[in-house]
Amino acid sequence: MSASRTFRVLPGFRLTLGYTLAYLSLIVLLPLGAVFLKTATLSLAEFWTVVSAPRVVATYKLSFGMSLAAAAINAVFGLMLAWALVRYAFPGKHLIDALIDLPFALPTAVAGIALTALYAKNGWLGQYLEPQGIQVAFRPLGVLIALVFIGLPFVVRTVQPILEDLDTELEEAAASLGAHRWQTFRHVILPVLLPALLTGFALAFARAVGEYGSVIFIAGNIPMVSEITPLMIITKLEQYDYTGATAIAVVMLVVSFALLLLINSLQAWTASSGKTGTGRDR
């Protein structure tokens, strides 16, 4: 056997690629292709009439706007929570670490009912917020809170392993050279965490934009106010308007894919920039 030949545990490239493409086609591409084929039965004018209706456009703005906002909030506070769990020891640390995964295991309908019980007008928190003019349930703010709740674990669990592997000697070296805390975070820590942070942001956004169960209870589903796009698709299906439902689904797919592609491209750019910067430093 040639010494230059690389030993591979898994099968060769062609066989592995074949399995990958076949699995991807069966699980992802065929269902998505069926959605596009069903939508293709509409003419361009009919398609535009369905997807540009004022009520449907309002659901786009709410779903994508709140999903981006929730992902951004989770990126900030998820990083802070991951930092506390990795860098500090405190009573109840393991309990909090376990509670972070609760949105993964909790049925989404249960989460929606629990949030509604908290923030409704007569809820535990709502009864104090509403007299102050802060209405959460049945408003976009309630949708935002639900999406933050279900998206937080994605950021924490993505950033946490990177923080655990981050050598604290780099921070100590920066401090010994006179760097302030913000300078150390900005120039030493953030470049290392940014690719993982963007990945967590993308995962939280992807989960939020298609979320249904935890949102419909607290949103109240008021047209033009708190109605989300997944609910509009369900409404079309209940009306046996399958082409209308798939047309709205196609818009969600295209916009979500474009946003995720942009985020992934930014993640790849930051990762390559970090490696280039490290190479220059050396």
TrEMBL record:
User: Which CDD domains does the UniProt entry name for this protein?
Assistant: TM_PBP2
Enumerate the subcellular locations listed in this protein's record, separating them with semicolons: Cell membrane
Matching InterPro entries, A to Z? Answer: CysT_permease (IPR011865), MetI-like (IPR000515), MetI-like_sf (IPR035906), Sulph_transpt2 (IPR005667)
Q: Where is this protein primarily located? A: membrane
Which positions make up the signal peptide? none
Key word Transmembrane present: yes
Q: Which domain of life is it from?
A: Bacteria
How does the entry describe its membrane topology? Multi-pass membrane protein
Domain ABC transmembrane type-1, chain residue ranges per copy: 60-263
Which residue windows are transmembrane per the record?
21-44, 64-86, 98-120, 136-156, 188-209, 215-235, 242-263
Instruction: Note whether Transmembrane occurs among the keywords.
Output: yes
Keywords attached to this Swiss-Prot or TrEMBL record, sorted alphabetically, are: Membrane, Sulfate transport, Transmembrane, Transmembrane helix, Transport
> How is this protein organized at the quaternary level?
The complex is composed of two ATP-binding proteins (CysA), two transmembrane proteins (CysT and CysW) and a solute-binding protein (CysP).
Which family does this protein fall into?
Answer: Belongs to the binding-protein-dependent transport system permease family. CysTW subfamily.
Query: What this chain does, per the record?
Result: Part of the ABC transporter complex (TC 3.A.1.6.1) involved in sulfate/thiosulfate import.
Name by which UniProt lists this protein: Sulfate transport system permease protein CysT
Organism, per UniProt? Aromatoleum toluvorans
